[in-house]
């Protein structure tokens, strides 16, 4: 990634709200050590009813990585979301050092809140070593510089979007996203369940490989389950949809920087029984496959009259 432009080097300085959004994300990823292998994380106090799943993924990876020697790189994680998180209260991450072998280190992380387990994760770290290499080909889509920014989309389409989506896109966020095809948000016609989204951290990040992996994990949860809704003409902001991440897995293949553009190519091969299954491949701008993602999530259609304020399991924002 040497030679790539960091955020802000293109002549556009981050705005003060953008800097605050980035600082807030980095702040929630900076866990407090309560005692060896026990860490505490907090959530943004921004009015959302549930903790964003990507936040829990990122925080759990921070906790796991602190017990692993620096020479070992995270290569996979597998997680289950057990309960919705309460953003008004801290989350404690308990790390179990399962094994340290000659090449691999395995960790198990359990997140607890209000005296209950809300999330569990296994993660594996691998010592760098040479070996065979091949990868899938990056989809042929327009690059991020050819696509409108969130500000441009809002200027042209704000009044055509659901109010909840308007509120989201108006906010400054730690992750900048540029959909390759925005038309699915403007039409409710069912389409093939796939989408391509460019994303990057909305500010420069330190040269810490594990932090970049945590930021990718943070970003990976927001749009993935939404891919399954495309086949049904729905979006995650619809008031009659109850959405929740059930599990989440990421395999990290190659080094990358999360503050440069990454293409998130997503598809959903199946939905059945109020569950949608989705996959994602993450590529750098020069076509290197750096991560693969898989998730199954709850995608339940509910009658609006049956919804109860404060009890929804719908996904929250990044």
Number of helices: 6
If you average the pLDDT, what whole number results? Answer: 87
Principal-axis shape equals: globular
* Element pattern in H and E: HEEHEEEEHHEEHHEEEEE
Structure description:
- This protein is an alpha+beta fold.
- It has a single domain, classed as Acyl-CoA thioesterase, double hotdog domain (Porin, Beta Barrel), CATH 2.40.160.210.
- It has six helices and 13 strands.
- Strands 1, 2, 3, 4, 5, 6, 7, 8, 9, 10, 11, 12 and 13 form a 13-stranded antiparallel beta sheet that branches.
- A hairpin with a 4-residue loop joins strand 12 and strand 13.
- It is globular and about 55 Å long.
- The two termini are 25 Å apart.
Give a quick set of tags describing it:
34% strand; 13-stranded antiparallel sheet; alpha+beta; 13 strands; Porin; 318 residues
Describe this structure in a few short sentences:
By secondary structure, this protein is of the alpha+beta class.
Topology:
Blueprint lengths: L15 H13 L3 E4 L2 E4 L11 H13 L6 E10 L9 E10 L3 E10 L2 E12 L22 H8 L5 H8 L4 E5 L14 E8 L7 H12 L5 H4 L11 E5 L1 E6 L9 E11 L2 E10 L4 E13 L17
Antiparallel strand pairs: 1-2, 2-4, 3-6, 3-10, 4-5, 5-6, 7-8, 8-11, 9-13, 10-13, 11-12, 12-13
Helix pairs in contact: 2-5
């Amino acid at each position: 990634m040497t030679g790539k432009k960091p955020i802000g080097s293109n002549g556009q300085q981050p705005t003060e709200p953008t800097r605050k959004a980035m600082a807030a994300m980095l702040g929630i990823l900076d866990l407090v050590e309560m005692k060896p292998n026990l860490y505490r994380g907090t959530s943004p106090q921004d009015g959302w009813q549930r903790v964003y799943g990507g936040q829990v993924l990122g925080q759990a990876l921070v906790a796991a990585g602190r017990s692993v020697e620096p020479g070992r790189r995270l290569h996979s994680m597998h997680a289950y979301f057990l309960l919705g998180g309460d953003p008004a209260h801290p989350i404690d991450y308990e790390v179990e050092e399962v094994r340290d072998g000659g090449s691999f280190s395995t960790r198990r992380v359990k997140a607890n809140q209000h005296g209950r387990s809300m999330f569990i994760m296994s993660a594996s770290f691998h010592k760098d070593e040479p070996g065979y290499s091949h990868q899938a080909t990056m989809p042929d889509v327009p690059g991020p510089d050819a696509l409108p920014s969130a500000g441009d989309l809002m200027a042209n389409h704000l009044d055509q979007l659901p109010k909840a989506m308007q509120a989201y896109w108006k906010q400054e966020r730690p992750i900048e996203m540029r959909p390759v095809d925005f038309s699915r948000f403007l039409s409710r016609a069912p389409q093939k369940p796939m989408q391509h989204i460019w994303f990057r951290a909305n500010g420069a990040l330190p040269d810490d490989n594990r932090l970049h992996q945590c930021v990718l994990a943070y970003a990976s949860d927001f749009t993935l389950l939404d891919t399954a809704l495309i086949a049904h003409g729905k979006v995650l902001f619809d008031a009659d949809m109850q959405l929740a991440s059930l599990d989440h897995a990421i395999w990290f293949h190659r080094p990358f920087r999360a503050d440069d553009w990454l293409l998130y190519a997503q598809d959903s091969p199946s939905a059945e029984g109020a569950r949608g299954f989705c996959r994602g491949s993450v590529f750098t701008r020069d076509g290197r496959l750096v991560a693969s993602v898989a998730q199954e999530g709850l995608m339940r259609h509910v009658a609006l009259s049956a919804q109860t304020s404060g009890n929804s399991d719908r996904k929250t924002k990044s």
